Amino acid sequence: MLNIQKNRRYRNYSYSHYLARFLWFFGKIVFRCVPRNLWVLKRIILKLFGAKVGKQSRLESTVNIRYPWNVVIGDFVAIGEFVEIYSLGKVTIKDRSTVSQHCYICAGSHDLKTESRKLLKPSIIIDEDAWVAAKAFIGPNVRISKGAVVGAASVVFKDIPPRAVVVGNPAKIVRYLND
């Protein structure tokens, strides 16, 4: 049974984390005001808040990164409009990968086995040359392997093997890309 009082008393974050969140509130406003083609300025803002962002990566102004200090973005990565990166846990998006518009990357959950529904912060890894198509949902503790494609509006809760193409809810492998 869920114990609401125990859940409310459980301390999920340190005071320094709360301060960082407060400062990021204003940093996010600045990030969103940066014009579309000033990619380098967006990368600088994210780096100021602890994100690791590689060269030539492009993030749209409407990308919502919850906690940039938990995000690693490789070189030549593209992240489309209205992508939500819920980075309670570490989110790594490696070189040359694409996360298309309206995707939700969810590196957070709750432990349903505990009465307090303790907050969990598992990681997500999107490997090199992967493509997460529009409106896909990537759940906690998932790895999208090198060269894999997640089809539009797919829901992924299990690791995806290299060069696999997955679609649906739940996502299922429909084929593999040729070399």
What do these coordinates show?
By secondary structure, the protein is an alpha/beta fold. The protein has one domain: Hexapeptide repeat proteins (UDP N-Acetylglucosamine Acyltransferase, domain 1), CATH 2.160.10.10. It contains 3 helices and 19 strands. The chain has helices at 4-9, 15-33, 39-48, and strands at residues 52-53, 58-59, 64-65, 71-73, 78-79, 84-86, 91-93, 98-99, 104-106, 109-110, 119-120, 124-126, 131-132, 137-138, 142-144, 149-150, 155-156, 164-167, 172-176. A hairpin with an 8-residue loop joins β10 (109-110) and β11 (119-120).
The total count of helices amounts to 3
- Helix % is 10-25%
C-alpha Rg (nearest Å):
17 Å
How do the strands of the widest beta sheet line up side by side? Answer: 2-5-8-13-16-18-19
**Assembly category:** single chain
What is the structural class?
A: alpha/beta
CATH architectural arrangement = 3 Solenoid
CATH class category: Mainly Beta
For the largest beta-sheet, the strand count, sense and barrel status come to:
7 strands, mixed
Beta-strand proportion:
25-35%
Please identify which CATH superfamily we are dealing with: Hexapeptide repeat proteins
Compute the separation of the termini in Å: 51 Å
> What is the average of the pLDDT values?
94
- The residue ranges in which pLDDT falls below 50 over 5 or more consecutive positions are none
Number of domain units: 1
User: What global shape is seen?
Assistant: flat
Helix and strand element order: HHHEEEEEEEEEEEEEEEEEEE
The count of β-strands is 19
